[in-house]
Write a structure and sequence with these properties.
eight-stranded antiparallel barrel, mainly beta, Lipocalin
Length: 172
């Protein structure tokens, strides 16, 4: 099996360049719904979710709506219980993205190397374009659907540094 540093495949490049928009930008989630087909039993359009995607690396941060007020808070020691519980409930992760398959939609796997809420479940989705700036992600078994709106048009250079043992040593 290929090392995580070489997960980027020729298909990743084809997927990224075959469309009017590229995936290697910033994205904001506009819809999360369960199940993937309407009528939805549950839908969320209020959680602020930002997904940053480079050619290989991704980062994802999710901030639920109606969080507590943090005015005047300068550190964790100043937080009350409700603020600490809200902070502990946050979801954020980062790692390497793998896109595979020739069919549409394409299968995407987000290999999470850093994760505030680790799970045993693999993070996979089927990606397809809704239009030139909106990407749809569906769970392979129809558990959910997410819509992602492009929020940036400039891809940034990414540099991930590893030590001699291959452990994460920082990014630039």
């Amino acid at each position: 099996m290929a090392s995580t540093a070489s997960i980027r495949t020729a298909h990743n490049e084809r997927f990224l360049t075959q469309h009017p928009a590229r995936i290697s930008w910033g994205w904001q989630r506009t819809l999360y719904a369960e199940p993937a087909a309407q009528p939805y039993q549950q839908a969320d359009t209020t959680t602020q979710v930002v997904w940053l995607q480079g050619e290989q690396w991704h980062a994802d941060l999710r901030l639920p709506a109606n969080g507590p007020n943090f005015s005047g808070i300068t550190g964790l020691e100043a937080c009350n219980r409700a603020q600490l519980e809200w902070l502990a409930s946050l979801t954020a992760f980062a790692g390497v993205t793998q896109i595979e398959g020739e069919q549409r939609p394409s299968l995407c796997t987000w290999h999470r190397f850093q994760d505030l809420c680790p799970s045993l479940e693999k993070d996979v989705g089927l990606l397809q374009w809704v239009n030139g700036t909106t990407l749809e992600e569906r769970h392979p078994h129809g558990h959910y659907v997410e819509h992602w709106q492009q929020i940036s048009t400039e891809a940034a250079e990414e540099e991930i540094r590893c030590d001699k043992q291959g452990a994460f040593a920082g990014c630039k």
